Amino acid sequence: MIERDVTVTNRAGIHARPAALIVQTAGKYQSQIMFTKDGEEINAKSIMGIITLGAAYQSVITIRAEGSDEQDAVDALATLFDKRFEEE
Amino acid sequence: MIKSFTVLDLLDLDLKEHDALDLHCIGGRPGLTREIRVPDINRPGLALNGFFDNFGEDRIQVFGRGETAYLQELEEAGRTEVFAEYFQHQMPCVLFTHGLDPTPAFFAQAEESHTPVLKTDLPSSELSSRLMRALSNVFAAVETIHGVLVEVFGIGVLILGDSGVGKSETALELVERGHRLVADDAVEIRCIAGNILLGQGANRALGHHMEIRGLGIINITHLFGVGAIRENKQIQLVVCLEYWDSNKEYDRIGAEERTRDILGVKVPILEIPVKPGRNIPIIIETAARNERLKKMGYYSAREFNQSVLKWLESENARSRYVQNSHEEHHD
User: Fold this and answer.
1) What does the angle CA B22 – CA B228 – CA B182 come to, to the nearest 5 degrees?
2) B185 is annotated as an active-site residue
3) Within 10 A of B322 (CB to CB), how many other CB atoms are there?
4) What is the spatial distance between Cα B192 and Cα B138, in angstroms, rounded to a whole number?
5) At what angle do helices A70-82 and A16-26 cross, to 10 degrees?
6) Which of B242, B240, B159, B259 is nearest to B199 (CA)?
7) Which chain A residue has its CA at the smallest distance from B312's CA?
8) How many angstroms separate the CA of residue A47 from the nearest CA in chain B?
9) Spatial CB neighbours of B28, under 8 Å, sequence gap ≥ 6
10) Which pLDDT band holds residue B2 (cuts at 50, 70, 90)?
11) B17 neighbors B41 (Cβ within 8 angstroms)
12) Cβ contacts of B321-330, under 8 Å, gap ≥ 24
């Protein structure tokens, strides 16, 4: 199991478009991937789950992956956050 | 567009109610095979006066009350020479409105030159608008597409997809749920008025039949009644069914509208992946409802994202406020 903390750095926060990107990326991996924010844990492959996290600008999310491709999954998701979901 | 459209084809057009032209041929029958090449009409006032510059000879010649009264006057005054010159032109036909009859000399010339003489009880203005409508349909761009056209909650939905993906079965379930079948398998699409796509069965003689694997050919009108079918319908939404491809990204939000170009008209398109357990008819019903909402100006996906953005913004403000007051405490 791997865990990594990431910060939301795009101004708008995780709205529908970034959420769709996350779900699409997560969906490519076999591992079980969970996001945790303020003690609330959701499945990273559920679009409504991600949106209801209410991850605004500067919030910190813990990505946790467990499975055969856990390292790749966490890396790919962390890259999305680093790139600010191609937004401002 | 069809290859050639003759006067006989015009008489054969099966138009109903407010589209009916109510035409019959009263003379010049050998000329019924004359082709109509231009979807337009001509009022021959100037030509009857001997002025043939820019004469619209390739158009249907419409004689209303004025023209007919003028013909009468010409005949009474014995000035019928112009008729010979008039009928030298290869016009598709001459058409009398208001149930008027051509004058004898004029009619004789028409017969002699094998120019069809048509008659209708409609007034000129009504005839012109109906004729223009009928002709623009005939001359409209046409494309035949392999798919099924159904009317769902008043929205014309064209279902596309590879053979065997379940288009007909989906349509059958929709008919069972009270929607209407317009055409199965081959849908003939016409572009009307530049921006309306009207779909109907490519072969009217076949009527509303469907092929369902395992059942064979079934007659929808007989099985489900006349309420389950429709002659034609504007195509307002295209649904493309495809086998579920786990490597393909499907639209998860629906905020961006994708369109497909048919005869130069853009129609919203949805790609719906098919796999066991997904009830496609219900998805299409929902898509049709959603399309109606969009037509009323409400875009579910966009409105949802707007409220998410607003909510995130307020969360953001709240957390900053909490943070600031925290720091002030410490200072």
Assistant:
1) 65
2) yes
3) 10
4) 10
5) 160
6) B159
7) A56
8) 8
9) B93, B110, B111, B113, B114, B115, B116, B117
10) low
11) no
12) none
Q: What is the pLDDT of residues A47-83, one digit of tens each?
A: 888 988 889 888 999 999 999 999 999 999 999 999 9
Supply the pLDDT for residue B58: 92
Residue of B244, B310, B316, B323 to mutate, testing the A interface (most A Cβ within 10 Å of its Cβ): B316
Question: The tokens of B189 are what?
Answer: 């699409």
| In contact, A32 and A46? CB cutoff 8 Å | no
Nearest to B10 by CA among B26, B1, B21: B21
Q: According to the model, what pLDDT value does residue B93 have?
A: 94
Chain A positions touching B305 (Cβ under 8 A) are 15-17
Q: Would you call B175 exposed, middle or buried from its count of C-beta atoms within 10 A (0-12, 13-18, 19+)?
A: buried
Chain B positions in Cβ-Cβ contact with residue A51 (cut-off 8 Å): 308
Q: Is the pLDDT of residue B205 over 80?
A: no
Q: Pairing state of beta strands B237-243 and B180-183?
A: unpaired
Average pLDDT, chain B: 90
Q: Are strands B180-183 and B155-161 parallel, antiparallel or unpaired?
A: unpaired
A1 three-state secondary structure:
coil
Claim: this prediction has a pTM higher than 0.90:
no
Q: Is B317 exposed, middle or buried (0-12, 13-18, 19+ CB in 10 A)?
A: exposed
**Bridge partners, residue B211, by sequence:** B217
| CA gyration radius, chain A | 11
Q: Would you call B150 helix, strand, or coil by DSSP?
A: strand
Mean pLDDT of all residues in B123-131: 93
**Which residues of chain B neighbour A44 with C-beta distances below 8 Å?**
none
Cα separation of B205 and B218, whole Å?
15
* Secondary structure class of A66 (helix, strand, coil): strand
- pLDDT tens figures, B239-271: 999 998 878 878 888 878 899 999 999 999 999
How many residues make up chain A in this entry?
Answer: 88
What is the C-alpha to C-alpha distance for residues A42 and A64, in angstroms, rounded to an integer? 10
- Tell the burial category of B158 from Cβ atoms under 10 Å away from its Cβ (0-12, 13-18, 19+): buried
Quick check: B316 pLDDT over 80?
no
Question: For chain B, how many residues are written?
Answer: 331
> Which ipTM value was assigned to this complex?
0.79
Reported confidence tier of residue B319, pLDDT bands at 50, 70, 90: confident
**What is the C-alpha separation between B61 and B316, in angstroms, rounded?**
74
